[in-house]
């Protein structure tokens, strides 16, 4: 039923919950997982006018992306699941649906934290934005 499963990850507890669910589904179905980290350009742009701070922030964000994907890839290996990793720059709410369409994803497994920030309450979360933007099946894994 599912051959290609997308699991966006940022290294958060909610992402780890999504990885747990996604790996179990992939293992049971013999599916491949696509591990995606989106470097949020909104975060990068907020520091872009500050010179050296922008370079340090970009380096930190790149390191965080690699660490999150290393963790996800290790989970895939331990589950015996084939994986592919990708890092994109952009807004997660745009990059996740685009990657899903480009890669012909059958299922997106995305984490959602019960602790929402004021900004998420006001504008909505990435998870909500993805749900509204895709025609693919989505499993929301709550931590």
Description:
Keywords: Plasmid. Residues 1-142 form the UspA domain. InterPro entries: Rossmann-like_a/b/a_fold, Universal_stress_UspA, UspA. This is UspA domain-containing protein. With 143 residues, the chain is α/β, with parallel strands linked by helices. It has one domain: Rossmann fold. It contains 6 helices and 5 strands, in the order βαβααβαβααβ. It has helices at residues 13-29, 41-46, 52-79, 92-102, 118-123, 126-133, and strands at residues 4-8, 32-40, 83-90, 107-112, 137-142. A 5-stranded parallel β-sheet has the order 3-2-1-4-5, with helices on both faces. The longest helix is centred in the middle third of the chain and has 28 residues, at 52-79. The model is unreliable at 118-123 (pLDDT under 50).
């Amino acid at each position: 039923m599912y051959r290609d499963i997308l699991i966006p990850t940022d290294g958060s507890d909610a992402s780890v919950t999504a990885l747990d669910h996604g790996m179990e589904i992939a293992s049971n179905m013999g599916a491949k997982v696509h591990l995606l980290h989106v470097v949020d350009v909104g975060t990068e742009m907020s520091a872009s006018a500050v010179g050296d701070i922008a370079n340090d922030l970009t380096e930190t964000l790149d390191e965080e992306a690699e660490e999150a994907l290393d963790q996800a890839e290790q989970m895939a290996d331990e589950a015996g699941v084939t994986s592919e990793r990708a890092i994109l720059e952009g807004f997660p709410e745009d990059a996740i649906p685009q990657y899903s369409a480009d890669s012909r994803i059958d299922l997106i497994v995305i984490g959602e934290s019960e602790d929402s920030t004021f900004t998420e309450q006001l504008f909505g979360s990435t998870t909500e934005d993805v749900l509204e933007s895709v025609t693919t099946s989505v499993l929301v894994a709550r931590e």
